[in-house]
Amino acid sequence: METMDIAIWTIRQRKGRAKPYELRWKVGTEPKSKSFLTRALADVFRADLLKAAKKGEPFDTVTGLPVSRTKTEKAALSWYDFCRKYVRMRWKAAAAKTRESIVDSLTVATFAMRGDAASGLSKKDIRGAMQWALIPHQEDETPPPRLDYAVRLLQKGTLKVRDLADPIVARKVCEELTLTRDGKRAAADTTARRRRGLNTALEYAIDLGELTENPLKRIKQKKTARDNTVDRRCVVNPTQARELLVSLSYVGSWHRGRGRRLVAFFATLYFAGLRPAEAIGLRETDCHLPETGWGMLTLEVTRPSSGKQWTDNGTVHDERGLKQREEREVRPVPIPPELVRILRAHLEEFGTAPDGRLFRNERGGVLGASTYSRAWEEARYFALSPQQVNSPLAGKPYDLRHAALSTWLNGGVDATLVAERAGNSVEVLLKRYARCLDGRQEESNRKIEAALYT
Q: Where's the Tyr recombinase domain (predicted)?
């Protein structure tokens, strides 16, 4: 129903509210109100209503808006609905880790996109509700009782996507991206990842017509230097690496072979420079293991670990192609005779899983990160001195890959070849392992001295 009977009152401030500035007006007999983060925004909205009333434009009694704005207002997406729409668009083509990252970015942004209805929800409640609501396969399910109240409040209690055009709103969102769950400053990599995820989502909002420009581009934040270089203290030398592999044999009982079945797994990380997810996906058909000489691993599949809710098959591990490569593209990795012997011995003693995988847990399932990490921690106590155990030396299984690449580079292997075998770009390789190249400074000094005095 439309009417020309309009009364518009002044703006009032309500302290303690998420959006403290409220404009009230009446359309016919229907009282209306709208809250804003700033007085300036409230003034602009009030001016628009006054302008429409002076022009004699009828107002809609349901929305309380001039007829010219009614369709626009009805079409505006709430932040909650936009997040669901965006995740469903991205879900099918995204890897499990990417899905998890997308949901994290949107969830953290939601902390700053609460309206009055959801202002009483804690961040813990919002995180649980959003993680449940954004998973597409749960679309037709009802929320679990512990999340039902929070989901219902978010459905009706988030700001509109277009509210991000307000710099104050956008800045609050950006601030949330920099915080951990306990309110401390997050690592620079975490903040950057979240901002990348949100940036892509807001580009989609522009495609939908909810925003005219990406508000993140106007928010300049202090840049924090990100140190992605490998800590040389975590890199083991060849002797230490072999001692760690031997010590794995003493982890667990000999009969069950908990540690012995992992020796070859960790050996591929050190001698071939594989990522753990690549080693987990390694199959017998991927291995060329001659009786003498060098062998070859042809990598095609990786099994990164993620939560069951992020994978299509409902398991912890997502089966994907190789990192930073086209689908079905393979990566050949030559392996030294020592690793060939270790892998041949592993196959002879433990065989393979039904699908041909070399490495599996004691029940035959996919080897989990928690399983091999526990064994590695125990092996460190056997192989290292108490002082070394308390140091970063080989603190994580991934440090074996760091040690492998550092050893190759220090041995004088061309960086292009190392990058090719490791599945990295040359730029990333040299940037990450710059601190681990021992002896290069003295060699460079000798070359400079020779040039100066010849």
A: 231-450
Task: State the residue for tokens 């270790």.
Answer: 342
Q: Which has the closest alpha carbon to 407: 292, 299, 269, 228?
A: 269
HEC letters along the chain: CEECCEEEEEEEECCCCCCCEEEEEEECCEEEEEEECCHHHHHHHHHHHHHHHHCCCCEECCCCCEHHHHHHHHHCCEHHHHHHHHHHHHHCCCCHHHHHHHHHHHHHHHCCCECCCCCCCCHHHHHHHHHHHCCHHHCCCCCCHHHHHHHHHHHHCECEHHHHHCHHHHHHHHHHHCECCCCCECCHHHHHHHHHHHHHHHHHHHHCCCCCCCHHHHCCCCCCCCCCCCCHHHCCCHHHHHHHHHHHCCCCCCCCCCCHHHHHHHHHHHHCCCCHHHHHCCEHHHEECCCCCCEEEEECCECCECCHHHCCCCCCECCECCCCCCCCCCEEEEECHHHHHHHHHHHHHHCCCCCCECCECCCCCECCHHHHHHHHHHHHHHHCCHHHHCCCCCCCCCHHHHHHHHHHHHCCCCHHHHHHHHCCCHHHHHHHCHHHCCCHHHHHHHHHHHHHCC
pLDDT band at 61 (very low <50, low <70, confident <90, very high): confident
The answer to whether 263 touches 342, Cβ cutoff 8 Å, is: yes
pLDDT in tens, 353-380: 888 989 988 887 888 888 899 999 999 9
CB 10 within 8 A of CB 20: no
Query: What tens digit of pLDDT does each residue of 21-40 get?
Result: 899 999 988 888 888 888 88
Report residue 163 as tokens.
Answer: 């509210």
What is the rounded CA–CA span in Å between residue 280 and residue 15? Answer: 56
- Positive or negative, the Cα torsion across 34, 35, 38, 39? positive
CA separation for the pair 404, 392 (Å, rounded): 16
Strand boundaries in 252-345, DSSP class E = 287-288, 295-299, 331-335
Angle, helices 96-110/123-133, rounded to nearest 10 degrees: 140
**Closest by CA position to 397, among listed 378, 423, 419:** 378
Torsion of CA 235, 237, 240, 241, to 10 degrees: 80
For domain 232-425, give the CATH number.
1.10.443.10
Q: For 94-153, what is each residue's pLDDT tens digit?
A: 888 889 999 999 999 999 998 877 788 899 999 999 999 998 865 567 888 999 999 999
179-196 tens-digit pLDDT: 998 888 888 888 989 999
